[in-house]
Design goal:
CATH architecture: 2-Layer Sandwich
Helix content: 25-40%
Number of helices: 2
Strand content: 25-35%
Strand order of the largest sheet: 2-3-1-4
Number of domains: 1
């Protein structure tokens, strides 16, 4: 019989790679209003869109993304669908 109770000397492991989540980026805007408008339109189409504020030395951008997906293949297929059905320049990237 296997003892599944934790012991005092039970090894503790931490994953070397955190869970990777894939998203499809469909836009980057300097104004939040523009990003929010695209998010609203995509959500009306049933897509799980969101805007993410990103700050860098060159300024602030509001990136519009769809997802996340746990599989890169699913994210890639979603990007193809968005390009075809919504005429948006879409690409797959990771979400931190």
């Amino acid at each position: 019989m296997l003892d599944l109770r934790p012991g005092e000397n039970a090894p503790v492991s931490t994953p070397s790679d955190p869970l990777v989540r894939w998203v499809v980026q469909v836009g980057s805007f300097s104004k939040s209003d523009s990003a929010d408008a695209l998010v609203a339109n995509l959500r009306l189409e049933g897509l799980p869109a969101f805007a993410e504020k990103v700050s860098s030395a060159s300024g602030t951008a509001f990136k519009v993304r769809i997802g996340p997906e746990l599989s890169r293949d699913r994210a890639t297929e979603l990007a193809r669908k968005v390009k075809a059905e919504h005429n948006l320049d879409a690409f797959v990237t990771t979400q931190e």
